[in-house]
Amino acid sequence: MSRPLRITFVADAQSPIARSWIDGVAGSGHTVQVLSTYPGAAAGERWAAFATLPTLVVRGTGARDTVRAMHLARDSGEGAHSLSPSATAGPAGLARRTLIASRRLAEAATAPIVGRAVLREVGGFEPDLVHALRIPHEAVHAWMALRDRPGVPFLVSSWGNDFTLHAASSRVLAALTTRVLRRADGFHADCERDVGLARTQGLLGTKPSLVVPGSGGLDTRMFVPAEVAPTAPVVLNPRSLRPYVRTDVFLLAARRVLDRRPDASFVGVGLAGSTEVVRLVEDLGIGPSVQLLPHVRHEAMASLYREARTTVSPSFHDGTPNTVLEAMACGSFPVVGDLASLREWIADGENGLLVDPHDPVSLGDAVLRSLDDDGLVERARLRNRELIGRRADRCAVMKAVDEFYRVVVGARER
Question: 14 falls in which pLDDT band (50, 70, 90)?
Answer without folding.
Answer: very high
